[in-house]
Amino acid sequence: MQKQQVYIGTYTFKGGEGIYRFNVSEDGFEYLGGEMAENPSYLAVSPCGKYLYAACEVGQVDGVRGGGVRAYAINEDGSLRFINQQSTVGVGSCHVSVSPKGKWLFVANYGEGSASVLPLNEDGSIGPIARHIVHVGTGPDPKRQEKPHVHFCKVTPDGEHLAICDLGLDGVYIYPFSEEKGVLDPCQRLSVPDGDGPRHLVFSKDGSFLYLITEMGANVVVYHKGEKGYKSVQVAYTLPEEYEGLKWGSAIRLSPDGRFLVTSNRAHDSLTVFAVRQDGTLEKKSIVPSGGKTPRDFDFSPDGSLIVVAHQDGGGLRLFKFCQECGKLTDTGLTAEAAIPVGVCFG
Question: Among 172, 171, 263, 250, which Cα is nearest to 216's?
Answer without folding.
Answer: 250
